[in-house]
Write a structure and sequence with these properties.
Elements lengths: L12 E5 L3 H12 L3 E5 L3 H10 L1 E2 L3 E5 L4 E4 L2 H5 L4 E4 L6 H12 L8 E4 L12 H11 L5 E6 L4 H5 L4 E6 L3 H11 L4 E6 L2 H23 L4 H21 L10 H12 L4 H10 L4 H6 L6 H16 L4 H12 L3 H9 L7
Parallel strand pairs: 1-2, 1-6, 2-5, 6-7, 7-8, 9-10
Antiparallel strand pairs: 3-4, 8-9
Helix pairs in contact: 4-5, 8-9, 8-10, 8-11, 8-13, 9-10, 13-14, 14-15
The structure holds NADPH dihydro-nicotinamide-adenine-dinucleotide phosphate and 1,3-dihydroxyacetonephosphate.
Length: 347
């Protein structure tokens, strides 16, 4: 599959599932590249507004939809006659959304060949990654298809503005990764490939927790030294858990690991960092979340990550203090003190 279908007659069609900021930015990106793209949103009133205004004023204001971009609230319509499905709903609704898709695909002949997750989170209750959920339902409904993940430092707003960005697309199937690389890559959006799917997904999910911690650090007014130390030790923790789950160490030093960690720990467009900044200024998590319309995946991942790290016996002290702040109401300055006064160690 290139930008044409395998028989080279039908143009490439992609369904993007999730009309938040990232789904919208990716759908705009694809349609700019000449791909017939359908963007699915779950609320019909919101979808009607997108169709009328040809812009997502709620999640990505100021970015006009290219002509090739269609918007739909019908899952069936969105997935029909597509070669690739790109899944970009928040992780807590991923299973339900993909289960619905799989039931619609069941028994059909003309089904997508590739399922690409661009979500950055894990399932809270099970710690399943999004591609594990996709794999599960594809097997259940006996649908063939390869699975992939898109990750890396990429604020939706900057991608939509065509500012230079580099990301990684991973699949255990090298051909799939290359096909997607060719579809998504353009001058301002450079795509690398990887085969380390679990590494990409775990680094993407866990960096959100460290981004909240970096926000706390800045909210407390700790300065640049502290933030740099937090990013570095955060990467050690992320790598520790990733390796325990079978990921390759080098992935954590790549775009999806270090790259996205630096972006979200320092970039003020990060929603996770914003949550941390507000916590560091003394605001309560309930109030911070009430005032946000967008998702900060790291809040839920802190709870599931903490429980999972304990289960596996992995030491993750920053994660533990973030759990204490978010779920035990610990004072942020006290949590920082607990980290700084731990037993002395070799690096
Ligand atoms: N934004 C970014 O820059 C980037 C985000 N990501 C990741 O992409 C994923 C999606 O985040 P993002 O696009 O930012 O989300 P946003 O916070 O921008 O929006 C959330 C979206 O989820 C929708 N939603 C809520 N409940 C459901 C449901 N039950 N079924 C389907 N959709 C639902 C919302 O719809 P509504 O409001 O209409 O209810 C809204 O469209 C996350 O995992 C995030 O980490 C990755 C890279 C960059
Ligand atoms: O993952 C992102 C950019 O790569 C977006 O981060 P936030 O969800 O913290 O905004």
């Amino acid at each position: 599959m290139t930008k044409k279908n395998s028989n080279d007659k039908d143009p490439l069609s992609i369904g993007v599932i999730g009309a938040g900021s990232w789904g919208t930015a990716l759908a705009i990106h694809l349609s700019r590249l000449g791909v017939a793209t359908t963007l699915w949103g779950h609320r019909s009133e919101h979808v009607k507004k997108l169709q009328q205004e040809r812009e997502n004023q709620k999640y990505l204001p100021g970015q006009r939809f290219p002509e090739l971009l269609q918007v739909s609230s019908s899952l069936e319509e969105t997935i029909s006659a597509k070669q690739v499905l790109c899944l970009v709903v928040p992780s807590h609704v991923f299973r339900q959304t993909f289960q619905n898709i799989s039931y619609l695909l069941k028994g059909k002949k003309d089904v997508p060949e590739i399922y690409l997750s661009a979500t950055k989170g894990v399932e809270n209750e099970t710690f399943f990654t999004m591609t594990q959920i996709i794999d599960h339902y594809l097997k259940e409904v006996k649908i063939p298809g390869t699975v992939a993940v898109l990750s890396g430092p990429s604020f939706a707003k900057e991608v939509a503005k065509q500012l230079p960005t580099a990301i990684t697309i991973g699949s255990r199937n090298a051909d799939t990764a290359k096909i997607l690389q060719r579809i998504f890559n353009t001058e301002y959006f450079r795509v690398y490939t990887s085969s380390d799917v679990v590494g990409l997904e775990i680094s993407a999910a866990l960096k959100n927790i460290i981004a909240i911690a970096a926000g706390v650090c800045d909210g407390l007014g700790f300065g640049n030294n502290a933030r740099a130390a937090l990013i570095t030790r955060g990467l050690v923790e992320i790598t520790r858990m990733g390796k325990a789950l079978g990921a390759e160490e080098k992935t954590f030093y790549g775009l999806s690991g270090l790259g996205d960690l630096v972006l979200t720990c320092t970039g003020d467009l990060s929603r996770n960092r914003h949550v941390g900044l507000e916590l560091g200024k003394g605001n309560k998590i309930e109030d911070i979340l009430k005032n946000m319309s967008m998702v900060a995946e790291g809040v839920k991942t802190t709870l599931s990550g903490y429980l999972f790290a304990r289960k596996l016996g992995i030491s993750m002290p920053i994660l533990e203090q973030m759990y204490n702040i978010l779920y035990r109401g610990k004072n942020t300055a006290e949590a920082a003190k607990s980290l700084l006064t731990r037993d002395l160690k070799e690096e």
